[in-house]
Amino acid sequence: MSRITSVVAGAIVAAALSFASAGADPATITMSATAPTETGMYQVKAVKVAFADVDLSTAQGAAVLLDRIDAAARMICGERAGRTMDEARAKIFATCRTRAVHYAVKDVDAPQLTQLTAVR
User: Which of 12, 19, 53, 119 satisfies CB 3.0 to 4.6 Å to 103 for a cystine?
Assistant: First the structure.
């Protein structure tokens, strides 16, 4: 991947990364990101993460939701089980995942979740 392609890819991922509350359900967030596919094209992926069953006032509940958020971030940013990434793709993935988790945690706005994220 050339430097220009890498910069453009990073900008596309950064610009397309977005999070929003999912309508009337305050216990669901929608995470979305634009990430490269196996063919080098870009695709927008989105996933809803529900947490009505989680008590966010506890460290245990925050850990459960953070695990869900991280799994969703890995999925929408393009991690594939059993496949390795070249260095350029790994950088794009890591940036996408970090931003996805950050903005999802910010969107949920729960102190225990924010605190746990800071130490992980």
Answer: 19
* pLDDT (tens digit per residue) in 64-93: 999 999 999 999 998 877 778 888 888 988
Q: Is the separation of the CB atoms in 63 and 107 below 8 Å?
A: no
Taking Cα atoms as reference points, which of 38, 35, 36 lies closest to residue 16?
Answer: 35
**Count of the separate structural domains present in the chain:** 1
Residue 68 structural domain: 3-119
Residue 106, C-beta contacts closer than 8 angstroms, at least 6 positions apart: 19, 114
- State the average pLDDT over residues 1-14: 46
How far lies 37's CA from each of 17, 20, 64, 100, 118, in Å?
15, 23, 29, 17, 30
Q: How many residues does the chain have?
A: 120
